[in-house]
Fold this sequence. Notes:
The protein is an alpha/beta fold and 642 residues long.
Amino acid sequence: MSTRICLLLAWLLFHLNAYAQVQAVEQQFTVAQDGSGDFRTIQEAVNAVRDHSQIRATIRVKNGTYREKLVIPAWKQNITLIGESAEGTIITNNDFSGKDFPGHDFTGNAKFSTYTSYTVLVQANDCTLQNLTIENTAGRVGQAVALATEGDRIEVYNCRILGNQDTLYTSKDGRNYYKDCLITGTTDFIFGEATAVFQNCTIQSLTNSYITAASTTREQAYGYVFFNCKLTASAEATKVYLGRPWRPFAKTVFIDTEMGGHIVKEGWDPWKGDNMFPDKEKTTLYAEYNSTGPGANTGGRVAWSKHLTAQEREKYTIENILSGWIPGKKLRLQPSGISDTSFSVNGSYRHEIAAHPNIRIADSTMPASVQVMRNIAYRTTPGGKKLLLDVYKPNKKAFKPAILMVHGGGWRSGDRTHNNTLARKLAANGYVCITADYSLSTHALYPAAVHDLKAAVRWIRANAKEYGVDTARIAILGFSAGGELAAFIGATNGNAKFEGVTGENAVSSTVQAVIDIDGTLAFIHPESGEGNDSKSISAATYWFGYPKAERPDLWNEASPLTHVSATTPPFLFINSSVDRMHAGRTDFIQKLNAFGTYNEVKSFPDAPHTFMFFDPWFEPTLATVSGFLKRVFSKNGVAVRK
């Protein structure tokens, strides 16, 4: 086989593996009544989705009529349910308010209500329905819901939601988005308290009655908003109202909507005769803008309805209506705000002692030649949190090279004390060592930690005189997640995109050397272990707020390998025997070599990932770091090139 073919095959395998890693996160199921899928019923597929999953699950449903009363419970969030076709994939049921529960002895009030008559109930957040028919075939027997939603951020695309009275119930105060849907019904067939946007939908009235019955609360700025919809009717529906208020403060607005001749000139009804809530029209917001068609008789509308001005219309954007949520845009996981103390030196020792019975935690005695200044605030984050650092410096008064030290812990655990021992010993060797905390993913997502560490480098320069730092010789050292961050800081030297808020006349955040101790260089790479396990959420997923499959661009952006340039300083890689912890190292070194940038690699065979904390590896690690820095920093403080 020729060298050219071998290279081509290697390239192909590399990209196939990378693609497979990206795709591995999401759960995928197929439902088919003929047994050709994973399940025969949709409910079985929903039940198989991981509880409380932060990773989206996609359930594809083959054409067929599924006679189910489907529930997506609150703990099954992030589900996408996609039918093979809207006309051919049918979920159907025929319960209605007042109907007896099946199998009951009927000695009590065992009957369906409006709220339990649904065909499909979506209680979970962040669910999407697409290409489905959801119908309630009970007929004109009173309230009979086809689709009920209780969750937040519910998206419905190209679905046929069919029924009579109370077809679509948007329950609770969640946010719903319907696009390219057909919704049919008789009375109040779009009702509830949720904030909901209907875009490019066809709303078909089957009898003379009311389309909407919103129950928007006083606190909600928006209720139902229809954009570019089309209001149609069956032959028997000739007098239909746009809506009536189910509760006070109901809000319904039609914008750029084509209205058939069945819409009455008054447009809206006040729902008189409701003794519990009389005079609801005094608190409603019922409005239109740019209605068209035979039913758009705005001159005849009731006096208490409103015609939006052009200025008022500008406020009706998807983002405003849905309080910042933009349907179709992937949502980030949000920080829990709860500190994670799972990673520690002592915990690592207990974990490794069985496999390495001869290891000992390295001696942390403070050398007599070193002094320490603790708990110095170097930055206040945009969220108002003060970040602290400690400075370890030689007692001798002279300007020395500095090392900013970044702890590990999966970007969500650990603290600056993990670097105390190495900082003390390096300070004794003539370096000013700064151990810093930074924003962990439990409190702020990427790139907050990057902004913090760039700020820490600037703090070192700004305070160089006080702490005896030679500003032309600043290195950054990190372990594990800290190693990745250190590599990223060095690889992005001079890249303004990652500086964060620097203030006026800010000093430089560039570093002149990087020591990466078992920190990954690439998140999407054949060697990477981050985000490849579809059964759990990786530490990087928590940091980015997105699984690899949803935002590979972000995962690539955060990879130091992406940013190697002529401004990237000399690098030292110190690695354990765990190959995935230095993913991308070979490619990174090739790029450094192409720029003529000095680099070294030191590997410890059979060493665990946390080797730097323990003898017999601590002293060789210390010697390797000291030797590298002596080589790359010349007397005048300029880094040596290879």
